[in-house]
Each structure stands twice: as structure tokens, then as C-alpha cells.
Amino acid sequence: MKKQLPILLLLLFLTACGPIKGDYRIIEKPALNRSPLQGRWVVTKIQTVTDDSVDLRPVIGSDAIFAPMGGIFNGQRIENPTYVIRKGKTDYLMKVGYNKTKDDVGIAGDNLFIIDIYQDDEKLFTVYREKDDVAYMDIYGNLLQLVKTKGSLDERQLKNLMEQADPHRTYYSRVPGK
User: Fold this and answer.
1) What secondary structure, in 3-state letters, does the chain show?
2) Rg of the chain over CA atoms, in angstroms?
3) Predicted local distance difference test score (pLDDT) of residue 158
């Protein structure tokens, strides 16, 4: 009887495992109808400087506009951007990226959303979003504080601004090639 019990249990489990026939569907990646930084932002100050080879004071007061079909930063046009979003610990991100603590940089939150903005598989910007209306953009290894001024723009407004903007890339999160 002792030998038959394990065999009986094995038969029970083996008969329970079988191919499942069902209706399978492939789930497609949803299309974003909204950018993670949707709206108009203004550069209010230089939060921290790690590379002083580029004077970023002229950028203060400039607009940063983000939408699913385009974006603008200080007159630089971004067409059909791709947004990659992840979440990270503020202290770790500041230590690795800038060799500073979050207190040195002046960021209060413990976590940040990291939003990488790409155009044609080329990374243009990294934005650290602290709150719904406060974010920090990395330009050449320096952090600029962005404050949200308008929730969204209609398609006509964005199209007009995109036509006026320069397609030449001037600003990057890190100097290309470094």
C-alpha cells in the first residue's frame, strides 16, 4: 500500500496537467494620447552646476513644451518624441549622476520619475519629475528647474509653435560623444 500511494498521487497530478486549449489574444502596446510632461513649462533657475563650460543663464525664462506629437525647448524643435519613463530613488540618482545628495541639489522628494526623451533613437533630454508641477531637466550635466505654467496646448497652438521652432539640435542632456 505504501508503494501504491506515491504512484497513485503521481497519476493524479499527471492527469491534471494537460494542454490547455483556449482563445489567445496578442495585447498591443497602448498609444499615448498624453505626454508624461504634458503642457508648457518654464525654466526658472539653474538648480545645480556640474559642468560650467556652457553658460546656461540665457536659458532661464525659456519655454519647454511637451506633447505626444512634438516638443520644444528654448526654440529647439523635437518632432515625434519617444518618452521612456522609470522611477528611481532621488539620493541614488543625484549621487550617480551629479556626485551630490538630494539636499545639496535642493530636491525634497525621496523618489523621482526619470523621463528620457528620444527623437529618432537619439536621446535628447533626461527630465527628473518631482511633482506634477516641478521637474528638473539635465542639460550638459547641469540641472535646470522647470515649473509647469499651463496644463496643455491645443493642436493648433502646438503646430504654430513647432513651425516657428528651429529643427537644429542645440541642447542635450549630455554632450554628444561623452
Assistant:
1) CCCHHHHHHHHHHHHHCCCCCCCCCCCCCCCCCCCCCCEEEEEEEEEECCCCCCCCHHHCCCEEEEECCEEEECCEEEECCEEEEEEEEHHHHHHHHHCCCHHHHCCCCCEEEEEEEEECCEEEEEEEECCCCEEEEEECCEEEEEEEEECCCCHHHHHHHHHHCECCCCCCCCCCCC
2) 24
3) 80
Closest CA to 35 of 65, 13, 14, 63: 65
Q: pLDDT tens for residues 127-137?
A: 999 988 899 99
pLDDT digits (tens, 9 = 90+) for 88-137: 999 998 888 888 888 888 888 899 999 999 888 888 889 999 988 899 99
Q: In degrees, to the nearest 5, what angle opens at C-alpha 167 toward C-alphas 166 and 168?
A: 90
Q: What is the average per-residue pLDDT within 47-56?
A: 76
